[in-house]
Amino acid sequence: MVYLPELCLEQIFRELEDDVKTLHSCILVNRLWFTMAVSELWKNPFDTIRSGGQKNQKHHRSLIEVYISCLPKHMRDNIYSGTTKSPIFNYMKYLRYIDIAPICKSVNKWILSKKIEELPLFKYLHVTCDNSITRDYERTIVETLCDYFISCSIHIDEIDLSCRPFNIFNHPFANPNLSKIKTFKCNVTYLPDLMEVGIFKSASKIANDIHYLEIRFICSHHNYLSDDLNSPVKDVTEFIESQKNLQHIILQCTSIEFPIILVSLCTHTKTLTHIELYRINFGCGFPLYYLAKLENLKHFKLESCSFTGLSNKNVGQTSFQKLESLTIKTTTIQSDILETLIRQANNSIRILEIRNFRVLRELIYSCRNYCILLTRLILSINQGTLLSIISMITTCSNLKEIQIYDETLKDGGFYIPLDINYKHTADEFICKLGTALPESVHTIRLVMDWFYKSSSLDIFFKQCNAKRLQRLEFSNCSFFSSKHLEVVVRHCGGTLKHLYFNSYHRMCRDDVKKVREIIPNLVIGNNEFNRAC
User: Fold this and answer.
1) Coil, helix or strand at residue 156
2) Which of 130, 156, 182 is the last residue in one of the domains?
3) Residue 271 C-beta-side C-alpha neighbours within 13 Å
4) CB atoms < 10 A from the CB of 376, how many?
5) What does the DSSP assignment read for 459-514?
6) Burial zone of 131 (CB within 10 Å; 0-12 exposed, 13-18 middle, 19+ buried)
7) How many domains, the chain?
8) Alpha-carbon distance 50 to 56, whole Å?
9) Entry's InterPro entries (predicted)?
């Protein structure tokens, strides 16, 4: 295997991009493997230290230590006067993802680990404990590193400035070194101490082949004028229109910016396939007419939005017919708009997610008629929508995954008590669900604390094809007991690959240990079982 062709090795190392431990082992094989694997190992090292823990604290510091050692002496001496080891490679040239958030975090951890005398221009860090001084020094190091990343990087694919925007597109080597980026994320803020002027204007002159774009407007002023020559919105729209192959956009903004940016999006009628809108409150109706112009729209998502007022529902007969996934979460929108959208898609939708939608029961009729080819269904329910949802599931013969959330789940995990006078019980629901599920389902996730007996769960598995199930999740099911667990193992222990529940307090610990020997991936929320053992 040592003598595999380089193209084969390159593909193997690319497949191992998320397996840092294995890549570390690969670089020890021989010089060729080292040379080829090291580029994969260092293309996005900050991504591996996002989670917490003491081990990662050390990783933060050592990563910055290596990068500082790669700097030219005149740049290094400005930020660090301590001793550094000479690197084997200039690891900076392998970086392909510039994400400011983890870089800032790593630099901060590194600063706090150093002695005062090792930090030029920062002698009073541990004396004054002035956070503003810390932030200024941190910014200086981050900008120095990013400048050198841009200067010597072979290929940069992604830039994320959503944490702390500063204009890296003004760098002397920005063109051509940033001209090939495919992903760009940036926040637009109007706060004077956070606003960085000219990022999008500079970017539009260099980066014109963005495929994935994420823009979030923060703290927009109500007295903002769209015709202002220094308007960030004007720069953003020009940047959007300058793209040659924009495919995916995530947008968060206010009603001030929304109609302006919407027009610029419509310049990409051929290429745009994904649109995600967040926290947009727009009182002039839902822009169905504009979205209908996007000939290849495949994925559409609304989350925490509100669209009120009259909407133009007159769209062409061929609009939305390539729509494959539709997500509506905690959004206020007229049900007839969604009905039009679903009807126009005409069975092209494969993934449907509707959560915390007030008039779900009225919408389900359209879903039953025009979403029969669904493979993934995600719904939040209440007692009033149980039968409607069951009737919809019976029409989805190709369904592979289903997730059901309790609509009464509140922030912090508190529930509104069930109406004990309502005629449909959780036991009835779980039994009917088993009857309705098609044989193609392999993944079931139930996020609800609706108590049902182990005997009802037994009926559920008998009704559905339990032997095909590969993944089961029972989140927030605090009532789950050893009897429930025994039913799961008896029906699908031989084929189930993943079982999740978030509490074991009603179970015998020995029973749980036995199940772990049968089901390869048994996960208990927050690792509480492991700590208890």
Assistant:
1) coil
2) 130
3) 17
4) 18
5) HHHHHTTGGG--EEEEET-TT--HHHHHHHHHHHTTT--EEEES--TTS-HHHHHH
6) exposed
7) 2
8) 8
9) F-box-like_dom_sf, LRR_dom_sf
> Which of 114, 130, 146 is at the close of a domain?
130
Task: List the chain pLDDT tens, one digit each, 533 residues.
Answer: 457 777 787 777 777 777 777 777 777 788 777 777 787 888 888 876 555 444 566 777 888 888 988 888 888 888 877 777 777 778 888 889 999 888 988 888 888 887 777 777 655 444 444 555 567 778 888 888 988 899 888 789 999 998 877 888 888 888 888 999 999 999 987 655 545 668 899 999 999 999 999 999 986 554 444 445 457 888 999 999 999 999 999 999 989 899 999 999 999 999 999 999 999 999 888 999 999 999 999 999 999 999 998 777 788 888 999 999 999 999 999 988 999 999 999 889 999 999 988 888 888 888 888 999 999 999 998 777 888 889 899 999 999 999 999 877 554 333 344 444 445 678 888 999 999 999 999 999 998 888 889 999 999 999 887 778 899 998 888 788 888 889 998 898 878 889 988 776 777 778 888 888 888 888 876 554 444 44
Characterize 221-237 residue by residue with b for buried, 16 or more Cβ atoms within 10 angstroms of its Cβ, and e for exposed. eeeeeeeeeeebbbbbb
Q: Which pair of structure tokens corresponds to residue 280?
A: 């947009």
Count of beta carbons in the 10 Å neighbourhood of residue 527: 9
Whether 66 maps to a domain, the answer reads yes
Cβ atoms 369, 339 nearer than 8 A: no
Distance CA 499, CA 476 (A): 14
Determine the structural domain holding residue 493 and report its residue range: 382-410+422-532
Contact in structure between 178 and 210 (CB atoms under 8 Å): no
